[in-house]
Amino acid sequence: MNIRNIDLNLLHVFVTVYDCKSITLAAKQLHLSQPAVSNAITRLNNALNMTLFVKNSRFIVPTRQADALYLDIKCCLQKITSTLSQRSHFDPATSERTFRIATSNYGEIALFTKLVPHLQRVAPNIKIIRDFFPINDFSQYLQNGQLDLGLFFDRPVEKGIHKEFLFNDPLVLITGPKQPPLPDILTIDDIIKLDFISFKNECNNLDFLFSIFSNHPDYRAPRFTVATMWSVFFIVSTTTLVAVSPLLYAKTLEQHLPIKVHYLADVEEIELSLYWRDIETQDLGHKWLRELIKDMFINKY
To answer: Hey, is 100 helix, strand or coil?
Structure first.
Protein backbone atom coordinates (compact mmCIF):
# COMPACT_ATOMS: atom_id res chain seq x y z
CA MET A 1 0.00 0.00 0.00
CA ASN A 2 1.28 3.47 -0.93
CA ILE A 3 0.90 5.97 1.93
CA ARG A 4 0.37 8.73 -0.63
CA ASN A 5 -3.02 7.20 -1.40
CA ILE A 6 -4.21 7.93 2.16
CA ASP A 7 -5.93 11.24 2.88
CA LEU A 8 -4.88 12.42 6.35
CA ASN A 9 -8.43 13.64 6.96
CA LEU A 10 -9.68 10.06 6.63
CA LEU A 11 -7.45 9.00 9.51
CA HIS A 12 -8.85 11.80 11.66
CA VAL A 13 -12.40 10.64 10.84
CA PHE A 14 -11.40 7.04 11.68
CA VAL A 15 -10.09 8.00 15.14
CA THR A 16 -13.19 10.08 15.91
CA VAL A 17 -15.60 7.32 14.81
CA TYR A 18 -13.60 4.79 16.84
CA ASP A 19 -13.83 7.01 19.92
CA CYS A 20 -17.53 7.75 19.49
CA LYS A 21 -18.62 4.26 18.33
CA SER A 22 -21.29 6.10 16.35
CA ILE A 23 -21.45 7.73 12.93
CA THR A 24 -24.01 10.21 14.24
CA LEU A 25 -21.95 11.31 17.25
CA ALA A 26 -18.76 11.44 15.20
CA ALA A 27 -20.48 13.61 12.57
CA LYS A 28 -21.55 16.10 15.25
CA GLN A 29 -18.03 16.22 16.70
CA LEU A 30 -16.45 16.67 13.29
CA HIS A 31 -19.08 19.19 12.13
CA LEU A 32 -19.82 17.00 9.10
CA SER A 33 -22.93 15.31 7.78
CA GLN A 34 -23.54 11.63 8.54
CA PRO A 35 -23.23 10.68 4.84
CA ALA A 36 -19.89 12.50 4.68
CA VAL A 37 -18.54 10.52 7.65
CA SER A 38 -19.85 7.24 6.27
CA ASN A 39 -18.30 8.01 2.90
CA ALA A 40 -14.95 8.79 4.56
CA ILE A 41 -14.93 5.42 6.34
CA THR A 42 -15.81 3.66 3.08
CA ARG A 43 -12.96 5.41 1.28
CA LEU A 44 -10.54 4.42 4.05
CA ASN A 45 -11.77 0.80 3.93
CA ASN A 46 -11.07 0.75 0.22
CA ALA A 47 -7.66 2.40 0.55
CA LEU A 48 -6.59 -0.08 3.26
CA ASN A 49 -8.39 -3.03 1.70
CA MET A 50 -10.01 -3.96 4.99
CA THR A 51 -13.21 -3.49 7.01
CA LEU A 52 -12.78 -1.17 9.97
CA PHE A 53 -16.28 -1.13 11.48
CA VAL A 54 -19.42 -3.32 11.49
CA LYS A 55 -22.95 -2.29 12.40
CA ASN A 56 -24.45 -3.46 15.69
CA SER A 57 -27.91 -2.11 16.49
CA ARG A 58 -27.65 1.69 16.86
CA PHE A 59 -23.87 1.70 17.19
CA ILE A 60 -20.94 0.46 15.17
CA VAL A 61 -18.25 -1.87 16.45
CA PRO A 62 -14.56 -1.66 15.46
CA THR A 63 -13.06 -4.79 13.97
CA ARG A 64 -9.85 -6.36 15.19
CA GLN A 65 -8.07 -4.67 12.32
CA ALA A 66 -9.39 -1.30 13.53
CA ASP A 67 -8.30 -2.13 17.09
CA ALA A 68 -4.78 -2.87 15.83
CA LEU A 69 -4.56 0.45 13.98
CA TYR A 70 -6.25 2.79 16.42
CA LEU A 71 -3.57 3.58 19.02
CA ASP A 72 -0.74 4.06 16.53
CA ILE A 73 -2.81 6.28 14.24
CA LYS A 74 -4.14 8.38 17.11
CA CYS A 75 -0.63 8.82 18.51
CA CYS A 76 0.75 9.86 15.11
CA LEU A 77 -2.05 12.39 14.57
CA GLN A 78 -1.46 13.88 18.01
CA LYS A 79 2.26 14.16 17.25
CA ILE A 80 1.57 15.91 13.95
CA THR A 81 -0.85 18.31 15.63
CA SER A 82 1.64 19.06 18.39
CA THR A 83 4.49 19.65 15.94
CA LEU A 84 2.46 22.01 13.74
CA SER A 85 1.18 23.85 16.80
CA GLN A 86 4.71 24.39 18.09
CA ARG A 87 5.74 25.86 14.76
CA SER A 88 3.00 28.51 14.94
CA HIS A 89 2.96 28.98 18.72
CA PHE A 90 5.62 28.35 21.31
CA ASP A 91 5.22 28.46 25.09
CA PRO A 92 8.38 27.31 26.92
CA ALA A 93 6.37 26.58 30.06
CA THR A 94 4.34 23.86 28.29
CA SER A 95 6.51 22.88 25.32
CA GLU A 96 7.88 19.33 25.15
CA ARG A 97 10.33 19.97 22.32
CA THR A 98 13.76 18.38 22.17
CA PHE A 99 16.71 20.48 21.01
CA ARG A 100 20.00 18.91 19.95
CA ILE A 101 23.16 20.98 20.37
CA ALA A 102 26.69 20.14 19.25
CA THR A 103 29.47 21.91 21.10
CA SER A 104 32.89 21.42 22.61
CA ASN A 105 33.61 20.78 26.28
CA TYR A 106 34.10 24.52 26.48
CA GLY A 107 30.60 25.17 25.18
CA GLU A 108 29.11 22.55 27.47
CA ILE A 109 30.66 24.06 30.60
CA ALA A 110 30.14 27.67 29.52
CA LEU A 111 26.51 27.19 28.45
CA PHE A 112 24.97 24.18 30.15
CA THR A 113 25.92 25.20 33.68
CA LYS A 114 23.61 28.21 33.20
CA LEU A 115 21.09 26.79 30.74
CA VAL A 116 20.06 23.65 32.61
CA PRO A 117 19.08 25.36 35.91
CA HIS A 118 17.19 28.03 33.95
CA LEU A 119 15.21 25.46 31.95
CA GLN A 120 14.31 23.60 35.12
CA ARG A 121 12.59 26.76 36.30
CA VAL A 122 10.92 28.10 33.17
CA ALA A 123 10.67 25.18 30.73
CA PRO A 124 10.41 21.96 32.75
CA ASN A 125 9.40 19.73 29.82
CA ILE A 126 11.93 20.90 27.24
CA LYS A 127 14.76 18.43 26.58
CA ILE A 128 18.31 19.42 25.63
CA ILE A 129 20.67 16.81 24.21
CA ARG A 130 24.33 17.52 23.64
CA ASP A 131 25.31 15.53 20.57
CA PHE A 132 28.81 14.53 19.46
CA PHE A 133 29.77 14.96 15.83
CA PRO A 134 33.14 15.45 14.12
CA ILE A 135 33.68 19.19 14.27
CA ASN A 136 34.65 19.40 10.60
CA ASP A 137 31.31 17.85 9.60
CA PHE A 138 28.93 19.55 12.03
CA SER A 139 27.40 21.84 9.38
CA GLN A 140 26.33 18.73 7.46
CA TYR A 141 24.38 17.54 10.49
CA LEU A 142 22.78 20.97 10.83
CA GLN A 143 21.69 20.87 7.20
CA ASN A 144 20.04 17.47 7.44
CA GLY A 145 18.20 18.35 10.67
CA GLN A 146 20.11 16.04 13.00
CA LEU A 147 21.27 19.11 14.93
CA ASP A 148 19.41 22.25 15.97
CA LEU A 149 22.40 24.36 16.99
CA GLY A 150 26.17 24.34 16.94
CA LEU A 151 28.19 26.32 19.49
CA PHE A 152 31.84 26.50 18.44
CA PHE A 153 34.84 28.69 18.01
CA ASP A 154 35.09 30.30 14.60
CA ARG A 155 34.35 27.74 11.86
CA PRO A 156 33.78 28.05 8.09
CA VAL A 157 30.14 27.55 7.11
CA GLU A 158 28.42 26.07 4.08
CA LYS A 159 25.51 27.48 2.11
CA GLY A 160 22.25 27.35 4.06
CA ILE A 161 23.94 27.65 7.47
CA HIS A 162 23.56 30.82 9.52
CA LYS A 163 26.43 31.96 11.73
CA GLU A 164 26.04 34.51 14.51
CA PHE A 165 28.97 35.84 16.54
CA LEU A 166 28.49 35.65 20.32
CA PHE A 167 31.65 37.05 21.89
CA ASN A 168 35.45 37.09 22.02
CA ASP A 169 37.20 35.18 24.77
CA PRO A 170 40.87 35.74 25.69
CA LEU A 171 43.26 32.84 26.17
CA VAL A 172 44.84 32.42 29.62
CA LEU A 173 47.36 30.15 31.32
CA ILE A 174 46.16 27.77 34.04
CA THR A 175 48.44 26.59 36.84
CA GLY A 176 47.92 24.50 39.96
CA PRO A 177 49.21 24.81 43.54
CA LYS A 178 52.26 22.60 42.80
CA GLN A 179 53.52 24.94 40.08
CA PRO A 180 56.06 27.52 41.35
CA PRO A 181 54.44 30.97 41.60
CA LEU A 182 54.08 32.95 38.38
CA PRO A 183 53.01 36.58 37.79
CA ASP A 184 49.35 37.31 37.10
CA ILE A 185 50.19 38.62 33.61
CA LEU A 186 52.58 36.69 31.39
CA THR A 187 54.05 36.87 27.92
CA ILE A 188 54.69 33.98 25.57
CA ASP A 189 58.41 34.22 26.39
CA ASP A 190 57.53 33.72 30.07
CA ILE A 191 55.73 30.42 29.52
CA ILE A 192 57.11 28.87 26.33
CA LYS A 193 59.37 26.40 28.17
CA LEU A 194 56.78 25.26 30.71
CA ASP A 195 55.47 21.69 30.63
CA PHE A 196 52.03 21.77 28.97
CA ILE A 197 49.10 19.35 28.80
CA SER A 198 46.49 19.55 26.05
CA PHE A 199 43.35 17.72 24.97
CA LYS A 200 41.76 16.58 21.73
CA ASN A 201 38.73 14.56 20.66
CA GLU A 202 36.27 14.51 17.78
CA CYS A 203 34.35 17.54 19.04
CA ASN A 204 37.21 19.41 20.71
CA ASN A 205 40.14 19.85 18.41
CA LEU A 206 41.73 22.78 20.22
CA ASP A 207 45.24 22.42 18.90
CA PHE A 208 44.71 25.92 17.56
CA LEU A 209 45.09 27.14 21.16
CA PHE A 210 48.76 26.37 20.80
CA SER A 211 49.06 28.10 17.45
CA ILE A 212 49.99 31.22 19.43
CA PHE A 213 53.32 29.49 20.17
CA SER A 214 53.95 27.85 16.81
CA ASN A 215 56.34 30.47 15.45
CA HIS A 216 58.36 30.73 18.63
CA PRO A 217 61.84 29.18 18.29
CA ASP A 218 61.57 27.47 21.71
CA TYR A 219 58.11 25.96 21.16
CA ARG A 220 57.65 22.31 22.05
CA ALA A 221 54.36 20.51 21.47
CA PRO A 222 52.63 19.40 24.71
CA ARG A 223 54.00 16.14 26.07
CA PHE A 224 50.58 14.96 27.25
CA THR A 225 47.22 14.96 25.47
CA VAL A 226 43.95 13.74 27.01
CA ALA A 227 40.35 13.49 25.78
CA THR A 228 38.55 16.27 27.66
CA MET A 229 39.23 19.75 28.91
CA TRP A 230 37.88 18.80 32.34
CA SER A 231 40.66 16.19 32.65
CA VAL A 232 43.22 18.84 31.73
CA PHE A 233 42.07 21.10 34.55
CA PHE A 234 42.04 18.30 37.10
CA ILE A 235 45.55 17.19 36.12
CA VAL A 236 46.84 20.78 36.27
CA SER A 237 45.34 21.13 39.77
CA THR A 238 47.32 18.10 41.00
CA THR A 239 50.64 18.37 39.11
CA THR A 240 53.20 20.92 37.91
CA LEU A 241 51.76 20.81 34.38
CA VAL A 242 50.14 23.93 32.93
CA ALA A 243 47.49 24.48 30.24
CA VAL A 244 46.12 27.09 27.89
CA SER A 245 42.39 27.75 28.17
CA PRO A 246 39.72 30.25 27.13
CA LEU A 247 39.02 32.58 30.06
CA LEU A 248 35.31 31.73 30.44
CA TYR A 249 36.04 28.04 30.88
CA ALA A 250 38.82 28.78 33.34
CA LYS A 251 36.66 31.16 35.40
CA THR A 252 33.91 28.54 35.64
CA LEU A 253 36.19 25.74 36.84
CA GLU A 254 38.20 28.06 39.09
CA GLN A 255 35.19 27.92 41.43
CA HIS A 256 35.63 24.16 41.88
CA LEU A 257 39.34 23.40 41.52
CA PRO A 258 42.52 24.79 43.14
CA ILE A 259 43.78 26.47 39.98
CA LYS A 260 45.05 29.95 39.20
CA VAL A 261 44.36 32.01 36.08
CA HIS A 262 47.22 33.99 34.52
CA TYR A 263 46.47 36.48 31.76
CA LEU A 264 48.52 36.39 28.57
CA ALA A 265 49.71 39.68 27.12
CA ASP A 266 49.54 40.33 23.38
CA VAL A 267 47.65 37.11 22.57
CA GLU A 268 44.76 37.25 20.12
CA GLU A 269 41.28 36.43 21.48
CA ILE A 270 39.16 33.61 20.07
CA GLU A 271 35.62 34.02 18.71
CA LEU A 272 32.64 31.94 19.83
CA SER A 273 29.73 31.70 17.40
CA LEU A 274 26.30 30.10 17.18
CA TYR A 275 25.35 28.11 14.05
CA TRP A 276 21.99 26.90 12.70
CA ARG A 277 20.10 26.20 9.48
CA ASP A 278 18.74 29.29 7.76
CA ILE A 279 15.29 27.68 7.53
CA GLU A 280 15.10 27.53 11.35
CA THR A 281 15.52 31.29 11.72
CA GLN A 282 11.79 32.05 12.01
CA ASP A 283 10.87 28.97 14.05
CA LEU A 284 9.51 30.37 17.33
CA GLY A 285 10.95 27.68 19.61
CA HIS A 286 14.31 27.75 17.90
CA LYS A 287 14.40 31.55 18.08
CA TRP A 288 13.52 31.46 21.79
CA LEU A 289 16.42 29.10 22.54
CA ARG A 290 18.89 31.16 20.49
CA GLU A 291 17.91 34.36 22.29
CA LEU A 292 18.18 32.60 25.64
CA ILE A 293 21.69 31.39 24.82
CA LYS A 294 22.78 34.85 23.69
CA ASP A 295 21.42 36.41 26.90
CA MET A 296 23.39 33.94 28.97
CA PHE A 297 26.65 35.02 27.35
CA ILE A 298 26.06 38.74 27.93
CA ASN A 299 27.21 38.46 31.57
CA LYS A 300 29.74 35.77 30.82
CA TYR A 301 32.22 36.17 33.68
So the answer is: strand
